[in-house]
Amino acid sequence: MTGPKTSFMHMLKNSFADFKRNKVRTFLTSLGIMVGVMSVVLLIALGLGLKNYLEEQFESLGANLIMIMPGSGFGGGGGGFSGPAGLIGGAEFDERDLESLKRIREIEYVVPLYLESALIESDDTEFFGYIEGINEEGFVLMNLEPLEGEVFDKGDVSSQAKVVVLGNKVAEELFGNPEDGVRKTIRMKNQRFKVIGVLEKKGDPEMDSSAFIPYKTTYGSMNPDKTFFSIYLGVKNDDDVAGVKQEAEETLLKRYDEDSFSVIEQSELLETVNQIFSVLNGVLLAIGSISLFVGGIGIMNIMYATVTERTKEIGIRRAIGATQKDILLQFLSESLILSVLGGLAGLLSATGIVLIIRIFFPASINLVAVLVSFFVSSAIGIIFGVFPAKRASKLSPIEAIRYE
Known about the structure:
Layout: H1 4-21, H2 23-60, E1 65-70, H3 95-102, E2 107-121, E3 126-134, H4 137-141, E4 146-149, H5 154-158, E5 163-166, H6 168-175, E6 185-188, E7 191-199, E8 210-214, E9 230-235, H7 241-253, E10 261-265, H8 266-309, H9 311-319, H10 324-357, H11 367-393, H12 397-402
Parallel strand pairs: 3-8, 5-7
Antiparallel strand pairs: 1-9, 1-10, 2-3, 2-6, 2-9, 4-7, 5-8, 6-7
């Protein structure tokens, strides 16, 4: 008399013996599940990678940052600093606003930002990037460090000096080796500027593609109205951020309507990013699940074909004492094993791909996605294996033996 453990081991042995006899069929059956699991894990990993990238950009600016933008929303990219306006209408900030905001005691830095896309030219090369007019405090607030040369100072701002500090990508495109750009001359908006510094690579495509000049240097043909796209505030202590935000709003309400500007905390942007990616991850999971469903249908089709192919074998097994339950469990176990093998192969493949991607991009394996994918693939093996397994178990032994 055989116990449950012996029966289970015998069933596994028979399943693997059948897989060994039909290697190609086994591989193709598991392939659908493998691709499905790999798709789910990779899509979630890439979504989390994008979220990690944006959070890194925000965190590099510090938690005590407040952004004042025109209009009732915010645009741009790369951590909120650079990028086209993306806003229509709203307040046009100027020097009066800077002076008013500087009176708020808890503020450490007040940085105006003039932003314009432009063609940046060296003697023999040109690059389409951004001109960012800021003050000397902007480099500290944005954590922008010089790779070569230096950044401009308060004197350069007040004297409207024709000096420029290049983002790493701009310098690389114009001069090949970024460090070679220092002490060279470039042209922007029909004006010549001396390069006094090149910044370390920030990792933000837009900041790295910007040329930073003293904001007062933009006064004239570039910025005749002497206005700014936005203003950034650096608060001394994290605990003071909420209070400074309220004071900044009250200060600006003396000049502008409530809906003509927005005062945004760094944490609010992070919260928005997290909400967006929660939805995005759900969508990606649904897309990947379609592949799992297709893989399950593949298993069902192959198992139906297997039942037909092994009809005579089923008849012989029934004739020598196998019950309907034995046949049902045999085919269900084969479906389950195929799904589990496919799931494991998908997980290993996805992990290997993510490890390669991580060299260039902060993709991240999500444990929940891994567990869900694996258990779903196992469940698919059972669910889609039930129909062919039932068909096999209900075959008449005599008719099965006669089947040709």
